[in-house]
Amino acid sequence: MTAALLAYYRESYAVLWASAFAQAFSTAHDHHAWLLGPSGYLLSVNGLRFGLDIHIHRPWIADDLSGSLADDLSRLDFMLLSHVHGDHYDEAMLRLLKGAPVRWFIPAFFDRERVLAAGVSPERVTWVEPGRTYQAGQLAITAFESFHVKVPELGYLVETGQSRLLFPGDVRDYARRLPDFGPLDCLFAHVWLGRGNAQNLPCEPWLSGFCDFAVSLLPRRVFLTHLFELGRDAGNLWTYTHAGLAADGLLERDASLQIAIPRIGEALSLI
């Protein structure tokens, strides 16, 4: 399946990207999100368009999008970043958009000199601290410390007035608990079931840990993402098999949950 999926994305990614951006900038798709990679998001909320960890880390994607990449991303109102790993952060994106009127929300633990050396105007950067809430138009964005363990990471609660969206990021320590955010409309949960453990089905005890952690956040709808990071080895490649195990485990804990396993480019309603 991995080879077939890679072939499909190599053939179709530019079309999926163009469709996602066209929909995002249409009024009919306000309050929607689109997956642009295993864990990179495009969102259209309250008339604002923004990205979270949008990155282009495969040369063939940059080549396929070379005619539209800068123009499309320059239309965004702002970008949120979570941490420095290459499947979330792309320094080339900073250089590409250095002259664009895009506002950047960047965790304060990033290397500031390196960020600014990429050409981003300091006036366009908000250095984000955990525990603080930032305003972007009608949106309230609360940053919090996530539990990646290996590197510092921020997660985000985005409150739109119509929905409450939680992006915990690449959580690795499921025994810890995030702040009490109250009930959520949408949880974007990154599937991770133990380092090197992808082929040890059913991936316990991490599967139970993941499900307990997700349910504790009181979501109404769960989007299971962070799948098919095709540069990973087989022991660390999360697929629809793992997402299916997670979906079953979540429903065993709360049968009322709405669960989706989105494909790249698919419009996801947030309300």
Structure description:
- With 271 residues, this protein is an alpha/beta fold.
- The protein has one domain (2-269): Ribonuclease Z/Hydroxyacylglutathione hydrolase-like (Metallo-beta-lactamase, Chain A, 4-Layer Sandwich), CATH 3.60.15.10.
- It is 27% helix and 27% strand.
- It has 7 helices and 14 strands.
- The chain has a 7-stranded mixed β-sheet, with helices on one face. A 7-stranded mixed β-sheet has the order 7-8-9-10-11-12-13, covered by helices on one side.
- It is globular.
- The two termini are 32 Å apart.
- The mean pLDDT is 93.
By CATH's scheme, which homologous superfamily applies? Ribonuclease Z/Hydroxyacylglutathione hydrolase-like
Helicity, as a percent range? 25-40%
Architecture in CATH? 4-Layer Sandwich
Q: List segments where confidence is low: pLDDT < 50 over at least 5 consecutive residues.
A: none
Order of SSEs, N→C? HEEEHHEHEHEEEEEEHEHEE
- Coarse shape: globular
Q: How many strand units?
A: 14
Mean pLDDT: 93
Instruction: Record the strand order, biggest sheet.
Output: 6-5-4-3-2-1-14
Separation of termini? 32 Å
Beta-strand percent range: 25-35%
Overall structural domain count: 1
| Name of the CATH first level | Alpha Beta
The major sheet is characterized as: 7 strands, mixed
Number of helices: 7
CATH topology: Metallo-beta-lactamase, Chain A
**Helical/strand content category:** alpha/beta
